[in-house]
Write a structure and sequence with these properties.
By secondary structure, the protein is an alpha/beta fold. The chain contains nine helices and nine strands.
Length: 246
């Protein structure tokens, strides 16, 4: 058994165990394999092992890699094509490229980016699923809407942004995404995941017409805690592919 197969077997078992602890079904959780710096061959190999959802952090890298993966799969006679998730920050000037490459955007972090995506969606009549990225920790190094304080001003600013984004044609908000701080103990990430879940519940009350069905949270070092706190999408790279290639 190769290392990729072993890694995936272990991850799936850990997801199932964590879901059981939380009285959830593992079938309700989507595993997105994040291939940052990994070659196209590694992504194709993961596809062979049954993965269908893949994530990339950088538009530039994805622009080259995604066609390579599709070509490798075509040569092997495999279909359907993978579902591609953009999980990293997207500059508004690269919105059109991200729109062309990806099936879902996890990191919608500004009204400006939403407006640009909306324009491209309208031009092609395509509806693009997106998640709103929330900075629940308040770390300056992280992108996303600031939601780290119990501050009425911050809350009102968030509601105004969400209201405008939901009004834009062509994009479909399906939930929230966050990145927890890097911590030594996965349990230290739990409050941030719990905060995102609570935030979704509050936004669902304010905007009940939106489904808010997804919580994209949890990565290699903390995904089991994320599952226990309600994650519906996990973004895992290193635990699947090993260390980054460069």
């Amino acid at each position: 058994m190769n290392s990729l197969k072993i890694n995936l077997t272990q991850i799936r078992e850990r997801i199932a165990t964590a879901a059981t602890r939380a009285d959830r079904s593992p079938d309700d959780i989507t595993l997105v394999a994040v291939g940052k710096t990994q070659p196209a061959e590694a992504i194709a190999a993961a596809y062979h092992e049954g993965l269908r959802h893949f994530g990339e952090n950088r538009v530039e890298e994805a622009r080259t890699k995604i066609p390579q993966v599709h070509e490798l799969l075509a040569q092997a006679g495999l279909s359907p094509q993978p579902s591609w998730h953009m999980v990293g920050h997207v500059q508004s000037r690269k919105a059109s490229t991200a729109y062309d490459l990806f099936d879902m955007l996890h990191s919608l972090d500004s009204v400006k980016l939403a407006r640009k995506l909306s324009r491209y969606c309208q031009e092609s009549t395509r509806l693009m699923p997106v998640l709103l990225e929330m900075n629940v920790s308040g770390e300056e190094s992280k992108h996303g809407f600031r939601t780290d304080e119990d501050d009425p001003t911050q809350w009102e600013a968030l509601l105004a942004s969400v209201s405008e984004i939901l009004s834009l044609p062509g994009i479909e908000v399906q939930g929230l995404m966050t990145m927890a701080p890097v911590v030594a103990d996965p349990e230290q990430a739990r409050p941030f995941f719990a905060r995102l879940r609570a935030l979704r519940e509050e936004l669902a009350k304010q905007f009940p017409k939106c489904s808010w069905k997804h919580l994209s949270m949890g990565m290699t070092d903390d995904f089991e805690v994320a599952v226990e706190e309600g994650a519906t999408i996990l973004r895992i790279g290193r635990a699947i592919f090993g260390s980054r290639q460069r």
